[in-house]
Amino acid sequence: MVEIDPTELEIAELGPKIRDVDDADELREMLELEEGGEDRAPVRTLIEDRLEKVEADDEEVDADSLDLSEMTVADIANAVRDIEDVDVLERLLEQEKDGQDRKTAKDRIESQIEAVTGGDDDEEVDLEYVPPEEKHPDLDHPTADKQWVESMEDGVYRDMWVYCETQHGELIDVSREMLGKAREMMDGYNASPDETSGAGDETTTGYGGAEDGTEEDVVAVIVGEDVSELADEAIAYGADRVVYLEDHRLGRFRHKPYTEIFVDMARAGGQLASEGHEDVDWKEYDEPRYTLFPATNNGRDLSALVQGELDSGLASDCSGLYITDAMISNPAKTGVPGDSKEFDRILHMKRPDFSGFEYSTILCIDKPFRDFHPQGASVIPGSFEVPEADEEREGEVVEYQMELDEDWFSVDVTEYDALDSGIDLTGHDVVVAMGRGIQDDPTEGIELGLDLVDAFDDAAFGLSRGVITSSYSFDGHVEQYIGEDRQIGESGQVVEPDVYIAAGISGAIQHKVGMDESDTIIAINTDPDADIRDFSDYYVQGDLFEVLPKLTRAVEEGDLAAAAAEASDD
Amino acid sequence: MRSVVLTKGVPDFREGQVSFDEDGHLERGKTPTVMNPNDKYALRAALQTKVRHSGTVSLMSMGPPGYMEVLQEGMRDVYADDLYLLSDREMGAADTWATAMTAATGINNLDEAPDLVFAGFKTADGETGHTGPQTEWCLDMPLITHVISLDVDPEEELVRAKRLVEAETDEIETVEAPMPAFIVTDPEFEASYHRAEHRLKHKDLRETTQDRADEFGEYLADDADEEPTDWDRFSMWNHVDLNLDPDYIGLDGSPTIVAGVDPIPKAPSEREATPVDPDDEAEMEQLVDELTPYAAGD
Q: Which of A306, A405, A487, B18 could share a disulfide with A492, CB 3.0–4.6 Å?
């Protein structure tokens, strides 16, 4: 007699209970009972699925028969991943210690022991889905009506999609940079687990491809007018497949249609596919696993809209990306307070944060009963190298077709003009840059910097990021000099003048990136130990409000003595 | 013309205001909160609309009750008519998508649907630039981002805007959209009041709003701990007021989490700096010798 009689239960009650049944014979008996009773198709499927799983578990290799001395570390890592019996793992650890005693192998076994024992009690806690109407009876129309959310659960995700932005019919450089980075990450991802790629801590783990062992691709998405000719170039820079859509109305970026198009492509062939795209011959999965966008004005907007519509998240303005496992204890993600859970194949997105004070690593992680895929990122232009184009590379080109709703074009671009290249801080003899040292009197600080600029024949005026992000109030006449177009550093311009004068700049590493190729660096700072001291040639320890006027007079007069003499005559 | 401006409180990043702990992490609790600098441009755009075309401006934020002061600051700046704070523990630690859902619900909950919604670009702390566009996506309005100048045509129910497209080549686009519309201002936004009557009106509005902001200040000072209810220009809404499922907002509704924060590593020492005492003439002379070859000719 079976413990659970399916004919006495509703399917909703049976679901959680059946997961406790580990005996294949018992499951077969339950199946017979159901077939002899109401014979409900979903109940049969439920029991059959469980039966299949139980039988598969029985077929697992006997871990004790493994001979570790015959195995590579990668093989060991693979083998122990499926072993959940601590005693077996302990025996394997002893075996390795007595045998080759490889540290890397022992690490793999030990971390598996930790993972198994760490989640000991609640490892198989089955969270139960509670509909929001029951969970929040006090709310009369909970967000569960999915007003804005088309969420998915247990979707199938594959591939890294790269939105390739174009301007004037060409791929822009950041598109090429992202294709190169995506190629590098997916090559690492598709490699076997003993190979890692990337540098330092930012290492992509080899997963040997998707869960089914097939390789995952880099997919380039190109949207615009006459963009088909860019497909080969995207392949040369690393794409395995290019999906493009052309329309004469898409010559300029438009938020609504571009978003609708990208999202329609991303859902094609999957369970949320729109009509006419339920089946496409180039895609069977539900949504992309990862998406990359350029952190340009339009690219960043598109990334936010696409990821929102796909009910997922993203990190903006990233400068580092890699794929590896993540151990997460956040209960919003694990569903169980106090528990840790390992999530694999997680895109780690590193970005300068808090106005340049810190790097944050952002992860986009599924939660119980709601998937957060694709994991999206926008990428700061220039963060990665433009790869060498490989004209021999082969790939698939897909022309995507869909109806574009006329309503999507309600924002009309009536006119456009290229700006003068803006403020170019490069190519000057001298650059004078100001930092937060101006805070006591921001307007005067800027004036003093500009005075010094004027004293030179060919100098440019720059700013550190700190000045731009701080909420200083400037008088009108200097306000025009405050803006991102004058920013020097990682997310601004990179300059290498003969002389770089940094006044009141403490020297964050992002600033250094923008100026450390300068021939001579002169720093002016009241702090005797500001970071910038380590990459300066002259370090004037003093107040910029006093030092700058002195330097200005000296440069105007040609030498300091004369300047000093004149100053004393005043 | 009814406008809503979204704003956020952020840590004050001016030098000397920011506190770090021993590990070099930002201590938000010890760093004062100010209005996000980029939001000022959204406020200016809303103010320009009010001065030119009359109507009302509502200011809305999501955050802890302390953000009331940010709203007060905003009220002075934008001559706002009323203030809304979406505030609730369930809304805490939200990423941009969960914030967008909350903000969009807040806007939907207003008695009168706005003709224009304004948001600033990146916040000084999160720096994503996502919340504006994602809020628009929930509301499904025509979206214009990176707006540097704005003209509203109430007769035609149109907005015309110039927007900045920064990519490989920087461009300015002129776009036109029907109202209601969602405007995200760029930090390059400039308001303009080229008619004398606008400048006069600006002055009038400033006076009445200053009084109003002071009133709010008195009200705040009166009873800061209690939930404000009796100043009819301020509303605080929690998730129940908004009918929001807690699973879709705050930390629980956020796809992303911050997994780690590393202080930016110190740049390695590569140059041997010659110390210069600004009061030492010989030392300064040496420095000036480096500069004089580049001096402007007469």
A: A487
